[in-house]
Design brief:
This protein has helices at residues 40-47, 70-75, 93-98, 100-104, 109-114, 116-122, 124-136, 152-163, 182-199, 210-216, 234-238, 241-248; strands at residues 2-11, 14-24, 29-33, 55-60, 63-64, 78-80, 170-174, 202-206, 220-224, 227-232. By secondary structure, it is an alpha/beta fold. The strands form 2 sheets. It has a 6-stranded mixed beta sheet, sandwiched between helices. It is globular and about 55 Å long. The chain binds adenosine-5'-diphosphate (ADP) and magnesium ion.
Length: 250
């Protein structure tokens, strides 16, 4: 579904991504691991159109999508979750979900926020969809809470929920488990597995929690120093000498 070919992203003379080549199979939940500073987030940002690459290509379903702006990738079903911005903290969880379809049409975040009254008035169907998403994620009880008041883990679930408001094909999750307690991490893992099985989403997941990766991901790709070191099942990658060395070296 996604092919990354010899991708480079340099910052000055520093090679954050240094010739990464990898594939994300359609229907997979692909894990992306590697020590801090390996270039994982930079790779995501290039794939999702937030950073232009220095060189190399990103191909989605056979089409060269290198350097397309985020909203065009979004319209093609390529989504990267983003944190709920500060200014949306005063909106409810449900409203945060309801503005996503407006964003997919290329509206800026600001316009989506500004027009939320219009969205709410015109789109009863969007409200029903948001409620269905909240139910799927087992967080209906926080629908009317202000997004700024929910826990870090609940925010992660809402971020995942935002991808369900539009026709996502592939979703990139960056450190979905960071600062999340074990129970919520399991809920997030369950939601990812169900979205994959029941709705056909493909995922690429950056996460440091190896139990989480082992439970939901196959295959796993390990990056270090901007390059892909190894790819395979969790056990294969965990036992790869270059991978062990990369982790020991940090
Ligand atoms: P990871 O997500 O694997 O921890 P990152 O992609 O965030 O790694 O970062 C890879 C390297 O690139 C780090 O050394 C980081 O300091 C550097 N880096 C990331 N973004 C920038 C930037 N905007 N400017 C300069 N250096 C950056
Ligand atoms: Mg990172």
């Amino acid at each position: 579904m996604i092919r990354v070919e010899n991708l480079h992203r340099h910052f000055g003379g520093f090679r954050a991504v240094d010739g990464a080549t990898l594939e994300i199979r359609k229907g997979s939940i692909t894990g992306l691991i590697g020590p801090n500073g390996a270039g994982k987030s930079t790779l995501f940002n290039v794939i999702a159109g937030r950073l232009p690459p220095t060189s190399g290509r990103v191909v989605m379903d056979g089409e060269d999508v290198t350097g397309l702006p985020p909203h065009e990738l979004f319209a093609k079903g390529l989504l990267r979750t983003f944190q709920i911005a500060h200014e949306f903290g005063s909106m409810t969880v449900r409203e945060n979900l309801m503005m996503v379809p407006a964003m997919q049409s290329g509206e800026t975040l600001w316009n989506a926020w500004f027009n939320r009254g219009r969205v709410a008035r015109e789109e009863a169907a969007i409200r029903a969809k948001a409620d269905e998403v909240l139910e799927f994620l087992t967080i209906s009880h926080i629908a009317d809470l202000k997004a700024g008041q929910i826990s870090g883990g609940q925010k992660k679930l809402v971020e995942l929920g935002r991808t369900m408001m539009v026709d996502a094909k592939i979703v990139f999750l960056d450190e979905v488990g960071a600062g999340v307690n074990r129970t919520l991490l399991n809920t997030i893992g369950d939601a990812i597995l169900r979205l994959n099985k029941e709705r056909g989403y493909t995922f690429c997941v950056i996460e440091h929690d190896m139990d989480f990766i082992a439970r939901i991901c196959d295959p796993v790709i390990c990056m270090a120093e901007g390059k892909v070191l190894a790819q395979g099942t969790v056990d294969e990658v965990k036992n790869d000498e270059r991978v062990i060395e990369a982790y020991l070296g940090t």
